[in-house]
Amino acid sequence: MTGEGVDVLIVDNDERIVELVAWFLERRGYAVRSADSFDGARLALKERRPTLMLSDVDLGAQNACEELPRLDQEGLLPPTLVVSGFLTAELRAELLALEPVLDTLAKPFEFEELERRMVACLAQAGETSSTPSTPGGHSSQAPAGSGLRAGESEDEEGWIEVRPMVSPELRGTRPE
What does the alpha-carbon distance between residue 3 and residue 23 come to, in Å, rounded to a whole number? Predict the structure, then answer.
């Protein structure tokens, strides 16, 4: 799926996670903004309502269990997918009790699973997204069944290395 026309707000205080998720989503056609706190998210939500918000639970001094209900009461909470490494059945039930919270996803996750959940949330919220393709009309995926995307490789221990893709005409050239 591609996110053409879908505006995503990522709310997470882990800069590395935000950078990786934004990189993936932007390559899939999503417009991405981010906030590293719920205060920052509130400002971003007032500026422009996203199609979908991806929110972590624990942002240090702020917590989604307190802040998402506040955003909902203020009429600011958009359709939301909560993505966290600290999900329990009780926490999940508490978060899903908020109508705009459509689903939860445990960290760590695979990009493909994140996008599947996002597409399901968008469908639930009445939004749509279309099929993926690169400018040449080819799928942006690595060989079928590999579970990897173009520009990724897996080492012997199962770690995935993400490398920027370089066009053939730029290979072998170095910036001066």
Answer: 13
Span of 11-20, 40-49, 107-116, 152-161 with lowest mean pLDDT: 152-161
Report d(CA 163, CA 57) in Å as an integer. Answer: 29
Q: What is the pLDDT of residues 51-89, one digit of tens each?
A: 999 999 999 889 999 999 999 999 999 999 999 998 999
Which backbone phi and psi does 5 adopt, to 5 degrees?
Answer: 85, 5
150 CB-near residues (< 8 Å, 6+ apart):
140, 141, 142, 165
Please give the single-letter amino acid code of residue 87.
Answer: L
Predicted model pTM: 0.72
CATH number reported for the structural domain that contains residue 48 in this entry: 3.40.50.2300
The number of domains in the chain is 1
Q: Is residue 65 part of a domain?
A: yes
